[in-house]
Design brief:
Elements lengths: L1 H26 L7 H31 L5 H28 L4 H23 L1
Helix pairs in contact: 1-2, 2-3, 3-4
């Protein structure tokens, strides 16, 4: 029963983050007022909603395609992987925002985050 509470909490936080993201997109303009605040709020709410949505999607795929009994550990792994994937998306969007993105930048980011995930997997095995 604990896993359902954690999934419900993750779902509710992703809904709240999505609502905040929609409000930031509709109400805050990066061209008027204080652009640093609106851009920061956009990236923070985008990160929160990406973490929630990607974690739920990863957890659902893991429970469908991998039959394991330890659902709590799978949820922790899904949240970690969703956070890393969201961080990679946010970094890529920020690099594109400041105008220095290229194909090679993204090619460097993908193995970097893959190595971070492999490090966490190795730490779990020990």
């Amino acid at each position: 029963m604990v896993i359902y509470k954690k999934l419900l909490l993750l779902f509710l936080t992703s809904i709240i983050s999505l609502t905040a993201l929609i409000l930031v997109i509709q109400k805050m303009s990066p061209f008027t007022g204080n652009p640093e605040v609106s851009v920061t709020m956009f990236y923070l709410t985008l990160f929160g909603s990406c973490v929630g949505i990607l974690s739920i999607i990863i957890y659902i795929f893991k429970t469908i395609f991998q039959y394991r009994q330890n659902y709590y550990q799978e949820l922790q792994n899904a949240i970690r992987q969703g956070s890393l994937l969201s961080l990679m998306v946010i970094i890529t969007l920020y690099i594109q925002h400041i105008g220095i993105i290229s194909f090679w930048t993204v090619i460097i980011l993908i193995p970097l985050f893959l190595l971070i995930e492999l490090y966490f997997i190795r730490q779990e095995d020990e």
